[in-house]
Amino acid sequence: MAVREIFAGMPWWVKWIAVPVIAIVVFGGLIASVVTFVVTLLFKVLLFVILVGGLIFVVRKFLSSSSDSRRDW
Known about the structure:
Elements: H1 3-8, H2 12-72
């Protein structure tokens, strides 16, 4: 017996409202945990990329300015 056959005789609101609401109630904590984990991971990856990019920028600036000051001598 397929899922399509089970829902064949049901009204539209059972398929499109009741079942998703029950799924959210039952799996809501799990869904929230997964979404929180993904958002936190993306934030940490973005923060890492920004910090590494800033470090590379500062090091290149410092190295170029120190080599310019050596040329002045």
